[in-house]
Amino acid sequence: MELRPDGVVRRVRASHAEDVLRFLDQPIAAQLVQQGRLIATTVTPQQPGDATDGAATKNTLVLEHPLISFISYPWEWPPHLWLQAAELTLDLAADLLKHGWTIKDATPLNVLFEGVRPVFIDLLSIEPLAPQSPIWLAYGQFIRTFLLPMLAHAQLGWPLAATLMRRDGYEPEEVYAALGWGARLRQPALTAVTLPSLLAGKAAERNAGGSRPAPTQEPELAQHVLAKTFRNLRTQMRRTVPARRASNWSHYASTATHYHEGDHAAKRTFVGEVLSAGRPGRVLDVGCNTGVYSRIAAETGASVISIDTDLEAVDRLAASLAKSELSILPLCVDLAHPTPAIGWENREQRSFLARCEGYFDLVMMLAVIHHLLVGSQIPLDRIAALCASITTRHLIVEWVPLADPKFQQILRGRDAIYAHLTEDAFRSAFRVYFAVERECLLENGRILFHYIRHPA
Fold first, then answer.
1. Is this prediction's pTM over 0.85?
2. Beta bridge mates, 283
3. 206 lies in some domain
4. Would 162 be classed as within a structural domain?
5. Cα–Cα distance list, 347 to 12, 342, 352 (Å)
6. Domain that residue 55 falls in
7. Exposure class string for 333-356: b at 16+ Cβ within 10 A, else e
8. Alpha helices in 170-218 (DSSP H)
9. Is the domain of 347 the same as that of 425?
10. N or C: less crowded end of the chain, CB within 10 Å?
11. DSSP for 53-68?
12. pLDDT tens for residues 362-399?
């Protein structure tokens, strides 16, 4: 697979080309693309110079796909998006079943998002259905990579972000060992965790003599069993999603007493005017909370990536966008400790900052910098440099003075240590990379800046 500025190119071996072309000729393929559930595909004739690896690439089928606006990974998703990706996978499998096709891979890594709308991107996971088999071969992978991480998150508090190091998910035995007996005996853990763990030894003994042929049934009955499997998995997946609960920041927008109503209004007006004048196409909202300013940006026509460290706040934002047409993708990302590059040679999944570099026309950092300065110990000049690397032009920053109640709250009496964090120091650090376009002093002493990046 090759990622290009204008799209994605995939080369398919000749042995698989026939199935791919046959599927693309089916009405269901065009229907799924039109619905936005499956990535669009164009078959491109291979040029004579394309085969760079000799026989390995000779006579391969070349496919082109459009770019998804912004690549995100499962370990950055809040629970609502995790569920959306799982349900897309199951619904797609159920719809394909009716037309004689199936999905052989069921992992969150096969899904990307346009806003909060999931898109299945792995065309090569779709293959002809074995009509007499009632077994979904991707069942175990779906359990390991979709259901068990969500179950472990809800029941045990294991972060969804921990899946960054677990590409193939969790084994039932791992989750079983951590669950108490009460949880082990309740669904969906009983079916997905407890029974597989208790029967694992016996299954190994049965398979010691060699693999057994898959059971066969009449095609109509086999399809009925598969359809029921998809429905049951959908129900189990929904039951694993944790109940929404309040966090330190999930109600911040409605309980921010350090802002007077006039401050709120002035801040919204300032941000709205900058967005309306600049008309950025791509916006990054750092410290988005529940998305008040992300919505303002999206309403001007921008495609917005909204990040916050508070999973509950991000999840509330994602859920609130379920029926919205606004282009907002909420992700749980800490800008001070952003998602790293991982995979073989650190080249399979790109870091968050690498995905951001040169991508955004405007970055918003509202009520964020004091947290980076104190909580994450990031120097002012490094924050300014990072901002310059991820916006191509506009930056909206809110400066919070040391005397501010929220700044005092995180200082915890360490005023002398951070006495150097003055407004003059802030202006000096950002002057290196940006010019002030306009600024607004709020009644509470905070200052909003609209910066324009110096030409590279």
1. yes
2. 304, 362
3. no
4. yes
5. 21, 6, 13
6. 1-67
7. bbbeebbeebeeeeeebbebbebb
8. 172-178, 181-184, 189, 195-207
9. yes
10. C
11. SGGGTTT-EEEEEPPP
12. 999 999 999 999 999 999 999 999 999 999 999 999 99
